[in-house]
């Protein structure tokens, strides 16, 4: 008899590329992650700008290269921006040899603080993008994020090299690729949930290609959600719930395991563009386009709106991102007035605001561990015949990206200070 053939190995997971050696986290990193909590912020003191970026978004071929949001990686090591030139730029926080963050005084004011580490160009306008839920720089295998763009499948990108890891493809009735309008990883990082027109498709992260499960958001009795599913969010308390926002001005709550529709929320004046759970998973916050209010819902009752948070978004179709701080006590949001407004989530009352840009602030995100936040700004401009060349020249506070440092009420050690 011949030698026994070895068993066939399973296909390699896109989260385990051969060119990235796996680096386990050190004991110090594991201990810090387990014990560290976000500091209590003194919002009576306005934050100060630590890093600023605008020159990288100035292009002769695209003078109004406005931004479309900014998102921190789950481990807080970097953040990704999206802009109208169909590019995603990844910026890693700069540390010195002693492990301290470099201060803003290290960079000239008339230039960018530093260059993006990675620039990824999509072929068409980007609809949505999100980080892998278990991303950690200590394990390069997990340093990936997903994007969806017009007429393209879902792309999974390597955040370190900028290379394409794999694609997840959905097809329509004509067997042509159809693009997702929203994407999100479930908390375990095993599935990609993608929003389409009146449907949600679920892909297995470890099985790229055209295999997926499809779930209609419109039930046989016409209940549910019609229109484009524009945003997806998962409950952070591992309750197995997810929320989806639709351009039909509704938000729906589903169970993750079988996509059972629990209830549909109505009350947004415009198409829902962003949804996010509270840190305890009991409340849901929703915002829409051409709608000046973020609505707070108690998903344990899901009958009435708890309160409304105002922001200046009455006349824009842009997706204006908001974010809940890691402590879960405050929410920050931008608007057309160039301001960032901070609200108390216990009372729904306004706490403070600060000027982040001289343009629409369309992105706001708290750092997951440090007392910092990131903002992005810009909007689509339609130049008329009477607009002069001087009026069309943008300054450093328009179409820009900024990182802000906040003041903790108490600092136990120097770990969170920017020296």
UniProtKB/TrEMBL annotation:
Segments of this protein annotated with the region Disordered: 1-33
* UniProt feature coiled coil, ranges: none
Give the matching Pfam families.
WD40 (PF00400)
Which PANTHER family does the entry link to? TELOMERASE CAJAL BODY PROTEIN 1
Recorded protein name is Telomerase Cajal body protein 1
Identify the species of origin: Lithospermum erythrorhizon (Purple gromwell)
């Amino acid at each position: 008899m011949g030698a026994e053939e070895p068993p066939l190995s399973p296909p390699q997971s896109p989260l385990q590329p051969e060119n990235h050696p796996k680096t386990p986290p050190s004991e110090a990193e594991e201990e810090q992650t387990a014990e560290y909590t976000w500091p209590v912020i003194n919002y009576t003191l306005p934050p100060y700008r630590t890093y600023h970026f605008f020159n990288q978004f100035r292009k002769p071929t695209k003078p109004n290269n406005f931004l479309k949001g900014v998102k921190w990686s789950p481990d807080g090591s970097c953040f990704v921006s999206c802009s109208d030139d169909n590019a995603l730029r990844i910026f890693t926080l700069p540390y010195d040899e002693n492990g301290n963050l470099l201060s803003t005084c290290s960079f000239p004011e008339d230039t960018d603080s530093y260059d993006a580490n990675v620039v990824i160009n999509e072929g068409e306008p980007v609809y949505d993008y999100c980080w892998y839920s278990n991303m950690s720089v200590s394990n390069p295998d997990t340093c990936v994020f997903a994007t969806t763009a017009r007429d393209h499948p879902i792309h999974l990108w390597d955040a370190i090299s900028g290379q394409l890891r794999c694609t997840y493809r959905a097809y329509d009735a004509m067997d042509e690729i159809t693009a997702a309008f929203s994407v999100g990883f479930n908390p375990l990082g095993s599935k990609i949930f993608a929003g389409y027109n009146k449907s949600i498709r679920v892909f297995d992260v470890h099985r790229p290609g055209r295999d997926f499960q499809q779930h209609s958001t419109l039930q046989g009795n016409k209940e549910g959600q019609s229109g484009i599913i524009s945003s997806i969010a998962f409950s952070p308390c591992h309750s197995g719930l997810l929320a989806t926002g639709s351009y039909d001005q509704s938000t729906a709550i589903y169970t993750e395991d079988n996509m059972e529709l629990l209830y549909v929320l109505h009350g947004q004046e415009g198409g829902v563009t962003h949804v996010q759970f509270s840190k305890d998973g009991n409340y849901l916050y929703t915002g829409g386009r051409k709608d000046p209010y973020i609505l707070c819902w108690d998903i344990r009752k899901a009958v009435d709106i708890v309160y409304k948070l105002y922001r200046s978004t009455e006349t824009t179709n842009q997706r204006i991102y908001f974010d809940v701080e890691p402590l879960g006590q405050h929410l920050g949001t931008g608007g057309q007035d160039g301001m960032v407004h901070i609200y108390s989530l216990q009372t729904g009352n306004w706490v403070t605001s600060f000027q982040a840009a001289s343009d629409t602030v369309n992105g706001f995100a708290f750092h997951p561990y440090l007392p910092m936040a990131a903002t992005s700004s810009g909007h689509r401009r339609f130049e008329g015949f009477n607009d002069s060349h001087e009026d069309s020249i943008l300054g450093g506070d328009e179409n820009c990206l900024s990182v802000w440092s906040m003041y903790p009420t108490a600092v136990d050690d120097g770990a969170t200070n920017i020296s």
